[in-house]
Amino acid sequence: MIWEIIISVLLVTGGFFGLVGSYGLVKLPDPMTRLHAPTKAATLGVGATLTASLIWFPTQGGQSTWHELLILLFLFMTAPITGAFIAKAHLHLGWDADELPRPEPDLHWATFAGPENESVLDRKTPDE
Amino acid sequence: MMRRLFPHPWLSVVLVLTWMLLVNRWAVGSLLFALIIGIVVPLMTAPYWPNATGYSRPGRIPAYLAIVIWDIVKANFSVARIVLFTPRSALRPAWITVPLELRRPEAITALAGTITLTPGTVSCDLSEDAHALLVHCLHAPDPDAVLDEIKTRYEARLKEIFE
């Protein structure tokens, strides 16, 4: 009984944060702020749902499994990487190096480092 | 000899554990295969990270993980509140530069991952010389407070663990 309550609470929490994450994608104004919604709200959303599943199997007479724990770990390890890649791609395409704070007066961020410091879209291919 | 056979002892342990959890059934055969993977994979990947050394204080990792998980839960509530109740016009997104004291790539990766997973911040880029991190804040009326929290709460602890 007590386990059922815990599992229900976790499922509702997971559903709520999943919903907030999706709503954030619609509501927030630009790609950089939109990036925050899925990397945060979705981690707890998926996390709570998987924890509920992790508790359900051993307590409700199923065969206990550890796969949820692995999914959770892999998700938490990969979420920052997808976040950084989307951010870098967005910086490449939509931002100028001058719009960002410089790390040091004479240094660039890695995305803008390079011989020309320009977006890949502006770079001319040899046969042009 | 041990060092040559196990270039990354922690990686070996993690691989054995991961394989056993994936198989999800206790059997000697699975454990044997897990051990083979735990030995062969670090040996084969060792050339790609020649400078990797162990942790100086691995005992502090659980405390760090507990803090990060607690912060992730808190972060979700604050981000949910911002998404649901802060009007677009009141939103104050900000870029902040985090100068790094950490030098090891593993430590910087751990810090960047932590920043992305916690309160309204996403780590976006690294400076050319890898001495600073570019972080985007969803809603930061006071960017210096965010910077201060990253430096004292996460970087100081990672420095203890790694260096």
Automatic annotation (TrEMBL), chain A:
Keyword Transmembrane helix appears in the UniProt entry: yes
Keyword vocabulary terms for this entry: Membrane, Transmembrane, Transmembrane helix
Gene Ontology terms for molecular function: sodium:proton antiporter activity
Membrane spanning stretches? 6-26, 38-57, 69-87
What Pfam families has UniProt attached to this entry?
PhaG_MnhG_YufB
Q: PANTHER family under this entry?
A: ANTIPORTER SUBUNIT MNHG2-RELATED
Identify this protein by name: Cation:proton antiporter
TrEMBL record, chain B:
> Among its keywords, does the record have Transmembrane?
yes
Pfam families, alphabetized? MNHE
Identify the domain of life. Bacteria
Q: Which residues cross the membrane?
A: 30-49, 61-84
The record's subcellular location field reads: Cell membrane
Q: Molecular function (GO) terms listed?
A: monoatomic cation transmembrane transporter activity
What keywords were assigned to this record? Cell membrane, Membrane, Transmembrane, Transmembrane helix
One cellular component term from this protein's GO annotations in UniProt: plasma membrane
Q: Does the keyword Cell membrane apply?
A: yes
**Which InterPro entries does this chain map to?**
Cation_antiport_E (IPR002758)
Membrane topology is: Multi-pass membrane protein
Q: Which family does it belong to?
A: Belongs to the CPA3 antiporters (TC 2.A.63) subunit E family.
Q: What is this protein called?
A: Cation:proton antiporter
Question: What organism does the record attribute this protein to?
Answer: Paracoccus halophilus
